Amino acid sequence: MFGKVFSAVVTIVTSCFILAGILYFAAGFFGIRPYIVLSSSMEPVMPSGALAFVNTKDKEVKLGDIITFEIPVSDVDAENSLVVTHRVDKVLDEYLLTKGDANEMPDPSPVRPDQIVGKYMFCIPKLGRLMNGRGRYFFMAGVMAVVLLNIGAILLSPKKR
């Protein structure tokens, strides 16, 4: 009896793990890209440590939209940029002014349309913390746990004679 229950639980855990992996990688195919929220500038909509999902195919923005955009780190180093997700505070002819919901002042630099990565869709609180830095280790530990659970389910399954 224990073997059957254990096997059913392992099947559910394995299916959820596989489904999460498929959803994560398939999202990129549809232009949905995850970003880890590193600051509290957009709280309470996006708490620090959340994993925010951005639709990179939707770049038509209006006042009040939350957008992800890139700003250059310096004028000298055009290769590297900082990715920011803030709300559109003002729409002007050639650029946008943005502001974090938790910030009192608007962002110092205007955003040009070519800097827009996409529009914010939703976030999953705390998941970014799990993936940040040690995320690869957690992923590999999850894979190993699923493999070991499946081996245990095979060993505990009733023998057919």
Q: Which helices and strands occur, and which strands form pairs?
A:
Layout: H1 2-29, E1 32-36, E2 51-55, E3 66-72, E4 81-91, E5 96-99, E6 116-124, H2 127-131, H3 135-156
Antiparallel strand pairs: 1-2, 2-6, 3-4, 3-6, 4-5
Helix pairs in contact: 1-3
Task: Give a quick rundown of the structure.
With 161 residues, this protein is of the alpha+beta class.
Give the integer mean of the pLDDT values: 86
User: Which sequence of SSEs, written as H and E, runs from N to C?
Assistant: HEEEEEEHH
Rg calculated over all Cα atoms = 21 Å
Number of domains: 2
Pick out the low-confidence regions. Answer: none
* CATH fold title of the largest domain: Umud Fragment, subunit A
Structural class: alpha+beta
Structural notes for this entry:
This protein is α+β, with helices and mostly antiparallel strands and 161 residues long. The chain has two domains: 1-30 and 130-161; 33-125, Umud Fragment, subunit A, CATH 2.10.109. It is built from three helices and six strands, in the order αββββββαα. The protein has helices at residues 2-29, 127-131, 135-156; strands spanning 32-36, 51-55, 66-72, 81-91, 96-99, 116-124. Strands 1-2-6-3-4-5 form a six-stranded antiparallel β-sheet. A hairpin with an 8-residue loop joins β3 and β4 (81-91). α1 packs antiparallel against α3. The two termini are 17 Å apart.
Comma- or semicolon-separated keywords:
about 160 residues, alpha+beta, Umud Fragment, subunit A, 6-stranded antiparallel β-sheet, 3 helices, elongated
